[in-house]
Amino acid sequence: MQAALPFPVLALEQQEAPIARLPQLLRSRPFRIVLLIAIGWVLGLTDLAMTLTYLMNVGMFEGNPLARWVIAMGSPAIVAAFKLTTMIISSSILFWQRSRWQAEIGAILAVIVLGQLTFQWFGYIDMSS
Question: Does the pTM of the predicted model rise above 0.90?
Answer without folding.
Answer: no
